[in-house]
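Long-time lurker, first post. I've been practising inverse folding by hand and with some scripts of my own, and I keep getting stuck on stretches where the C-alpha coordinates seem ambiguous. Below is the full C-alpha coordinate string for one chain I'm working on. Before anyone asks, I'm not after the true native sequence, just a reasonable design that respects the backbone. If someone could post their per-position residues I'd love to compare against what I wrote down in my notebook.
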Protein backbone atom coordinates (compact mmCIF):
# COMPACT_ATOMS: atom_id res chain seq x y z
CA UNK A 1 0.00 0.00 0.00
CA UNK A 2 2.87 2.40 0.73
CA UNK A 3 4.43 1.61 -2.64
CA UNK A 4 1.09 2.23 -4.32
CA UNK A 5 0.83 5.66 -2.70
CA UNK A 6 4.36 6.50 -3.81
CA UNK A 7 3.67 5.30 -7.34
CA UNK A 8 0.50 7.40 -7.52
CA UNK A 9 2.45 10.48 -6.43
CA UNK A 10 5.69 9.99 -8.35
CA UNK A 11 5.69 13.59 -9.58
CA UNK A 12 6.19 14.84 -6.01
CA UNK A 13 9.84 13.76 -5.96
CA UNK A 14 10.58 16.96 -7.90
CA UNK A 15 8.32 19.39 -6.00
CA UNK A 16 10.52 20.22 -2.98
CA UNK A 17 14.25 20.16 -3.63
CA UNK A 18 15.25 22.19 -0.57
CA UNK A 19 16.76 19.28 1.36
CA UNK A 20 19.23 18.18 -1.29
CA UNK A 21 20.13 21.79 -2.09
CA UNK A 22 20.39 23.04 1.50
CA UNK A 23 22.07 19.96 3.02
CA UNK A 24 25.14 19.20 0.92
CA UNK A 25 25.63 15.65 2.28
CA UNK A 26 22.09 14.86 0.97
CA UNK A 27 22.76 16.10 -2.57
CA UNK A 28 22.10 12.70 -4.18
CA UNK A 29 18.64 12.41 -2.65
CA UNK A 30 15.13 13.46 -3.50
CA UNK A 31 12.42 13.75 -0.88
CA UNK A 32 8.70 14.14 -0.27
CA UNK A 33 8.16 15.87 3.08
CA UNK A 34 5.06 14.71 4.95
CA UNK A 35 5.75 16.51 8.23
CA UNK A 36 8.28 19.34 8.24
CA UNK A 37 9.70 22.12 10.35
CA UNK A 38 7.07 24.69 11.39
CA UNK A 39 9.00 27.93 10.98
CA UNK A 40 7.29 31.08 12.17
CA UNK A 41 7.60 34.34 10.27
CA UNK A 42 10.88 36.12 11.08
CA UNK A 43 12.24 33.08 12.96
CA UNK A 44 15.99 33.24 12.38
CA UNK A 45 16.84 29.97 14.16
CA UNK A 46 18.52 27.20 12.20
CA UNK A 47 16.12 24.47 11.07
CA UNK A 48 18.02 22.08 13.36
CA UNK A 49 17.05 24.17 16.40
CA UNK A 50 13.32 24.48 15.72
CA UNK A 51 11.29 21.91 17.65
CA UNK A 52 7.87 22.55 16.13
CA UNK A 53 6.74 20.51 13.14
CA UNK A 54 3.59 20.43 11.04
CA UNK A 55 1.85 18.40 8.38
CA UNK A 56 2.75 19.40 4.83
CA UNK A 57 0.22 19.71 1.97
CA UNK A 58 1.66 16.46 0.53
CA UNK A 59 0.55 14.43 3.57
CA UNK A 60 -3.08 14.45 2.40
CA UNK A 61 -1.98 12.42 -0.63
CA UNK A 62 -0.53 9.72 1.63
CA UNK A 63 -3.33 8.58 3.99
CA UNK A 64 -1.98 5.03 4.36
CA UNK A 65 1.50 6.32 5.13
CA UNK A 66 0.22 8.86 7.65
CA UNK A 67 -1.86 6.19 9.40
CA UNK A 68 1.22 3.94 9.54
CA UNK A 69 3.28 6.78 11.02
CA UNK A 70 0.62 7.57 13.62
CA UNK A 71 0.50 3.90 14.62
CA UNK A 72 4.30 3.78 14.89
CA UNK A 73 4.37 6.86 17.13
CA UNK A 74 1.72 5.29 19.37
CA UNK A 75 3.57 1.95 19.44
CA UNK A 76 6.82 3.73 20.36
CA UNK A 77 5.04 5.76 23.09
CA UNK A 78 5.95 9.07 21.50
CA UNK A 79 4.75 11.79 19.22
CA UNK A 80 5.38 11.92 15.49
CA UNK A 81 7.56 14.82 14.46
CA UNK A 82 9.21 15.33 11.04
CA UNK A 83 8.63 12.62 8.43
CA UNK A 84 9.52 12.24 4.79
CA UNK A 85 10.05 9.79 2.00
CA UNK A 86 13.63 9.91 0.75
CA UNK A 87 15.10 8.22 -2.26
CA UNK A 88 18.80 7.88 -2.95
CA UNK A 89 20.17 7.89 -6.48
CA UNK A 90 21.61 4.58 -7.78
CA UNK A 91 25.28 4.06 -6.95
CA UNK A 92 25.44 7.09 -4.68
CA UNK A 93 25.96 8.14 -1.08
CA UNK A 94 24.65 10.17 1.77
CA UNK A 95 27.99 11.49 2.94
CA UNK A 96 29.22 11.18 6.55
CA UNK A 97 27.60 13.68 8.89
CA UNK A 98 26.10 14.21 12.33
CA UNK A 99 22.61 15.61 12.86
CA UNK A 100 23.37 18.53 15.19
CA UNK A 101 20.95 20.87 16.90
CA UNK A 102 18.36 21.08 19.63
CA UNK A 103 15.71 19.33 17.51
CA UNK A 104 17.76 16.17 16.99
CA UNK A 105 19.16 16.08 20.53
CA UNK A 106 15.79 14.99 21.98
CA UNK A 107 14.32 12.86 19.18
CA UNK A 108 14.86 9.37 17.82
CA UNK A 109 15.34 8.84 14.08
CA UNK A 110 13.84 5.80 12.31
CA UNK A 111 14.19 4.41 8.80
CA UNK A 112 11.54 2.13 7.33
CA UNK A 113 13.04 0.53 4.22
CA UNK A 114 10.60 0.59 1.28
CA UNK A 115 12.72 -0.22 -1.81
CA UNK A 116 16.32 -1.40 -1.70
CA UNK A 117 17.26 -4.08 -4.24
CA UNK A 118 20.81 -4.54 -2.92
CA UNK A 119 19.97 -3.72 0.69
CA UNK A 120 20.59 -0.35 2.28
CA UNK A 121 24.06 0.12 3.70
CA UNK A 122 24.16 2.29 6.82
CA UNK A 123 27.04 3.07 9.12
CA UNK A 124 26.47 4.89 12.40
CA UNK A 125 29.39 5.26 14.76
CA UNK A 126 31.23 1.92 14.73
CA UNK A 127 28.21 -0.12 13.62
CA UNK A 128 27.55 -1.12 9.99
CA UNK A 129 24.35 -2.78 8.81
CA UNK A 130 22.56 -3.69 5.61
CA UNK A 131 18.86 -2.95 5.93
CA UNK A 132 16.29 -4.83 3.85
CA UNK A 133 12.85 -3.83 2.51
CA UNK A 134 10.16 -4.11 5.17
CA UNK A 135 12.58 -3.57 8.04
CA UNK A 136 12.29 -0.72 10.53
CA UNK A 137 15.54 0.56 12.03
CA UNK A 138 16.38 3.05 14.75
CA UNK A 139 19.87 4.45 14.52
CA UNK A 140 21.95 7.00 16.34
CA UNK A 141 21.89 10.03 14.06
CA UNK A 142 23.77 11.98 16.72
CA UNK A 143 26.84 9.86 15.86
CA UNK A 144 28.76 10.22 12.61
CA UNK A 145 26.69 8.32 10.05
CA UNK A 146 26.52 7.67 6.31
CA UNK A 147 24.62 5.49 3.88
CA UNK A 148 24.94 4.11 0.38
CA UNK A 149 22.84 2.77 -2.45
CA UNK A 150 24.83 0.02 -4.12
CA UNK A 151 22.36 -0.83 -6.85
CA UNK A 152 21.09 0.24 -10.28
CA UNK A 153 17.73 1.40 -8.84
CA UNK A 154 16.60 4.17 -6.52
CA UNK A 155 16.64 3.26 -2.83
CA UNK A 156 13.54 4.50 -0.97
CA UNK A 157 13.11 4.92 2.79
CA UNK A 158 10.37 6.42 4.94
CA UNK A 159 12.31 8.44 7.52
CA UNK A 160 10.63 9.76 10.65
CA UNK A 161 11.42 11.22 14.05
CA UNK A 162 9.73 10.34 17.34
CA UNK A 163 9.78 12.60 20.40
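-- Answer (accepted) --
I ran through it position by position. Result:
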Amino acid sequence: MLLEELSNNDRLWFEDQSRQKRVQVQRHTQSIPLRAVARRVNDQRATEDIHESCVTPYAALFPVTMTFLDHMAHHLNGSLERALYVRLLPWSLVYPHIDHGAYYAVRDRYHFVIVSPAGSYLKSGDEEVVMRPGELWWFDNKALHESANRSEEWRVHLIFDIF
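A couple of notes from the structure itself: The longest strand covers residues 29-37. The radius of gyration is 15 Å. Happy to go over any region you disagree with.
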